[in-house]
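quick one, 190 residues, struct below
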Amino acid sequence: MSLLSKKAVVLLLAAAASLGALTVQAAKAPAKETVQGQKVSMLDGKFTFTLPKGFIANPLPASPTGASGTMYANETTKTVVIAAQNSLPEGVKVKDNDGEFLDGTAADFDSAQHQALPDYNKLSEKSLTLKATGLGVRQVDSTATQGGGTTLNTTLMAASGNHMTVIQVISRPGDMAAHETLIKQIVSGK
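---
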């Protein structure tokens, strides 16, 4: 992976980590609750999906690097979705399905998770292409202890032009079927 790609990954992972660390603050912020599902649009509309009813949106404070995001929480299912986006370093532009960039991003993400979470266990990694837009996505499924208990995690990474997005879905491990259904809904764009 190129040095430029590594810098981009490090910036976004740091931003995503800082956004994740701010979830406690975000949980105290006024939430936006709707009767219908929450529509999410990332990368100028190239990665869009609608979360099912029951998710409450909490905008996360922007990070010092300019990353922004929203945490969506479903209290009933104890599921959290964090959608974050950041600019790539100046001069870096990637194609909508840049395999080399995405492969390097997934490898760097895996390495960072091993360092940050002692019991991080990668279950699988997939390379996807969104049918509606042709956007390349890397999906990493894992387990780890977070917030005092074991969690089931899926991280979706995509980039287009000079932006990159990370969508992280965190569920209870005993709810694998609902977790997989939510991931399918997100990557299908429905």
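The longest helix spans residues 3-21.
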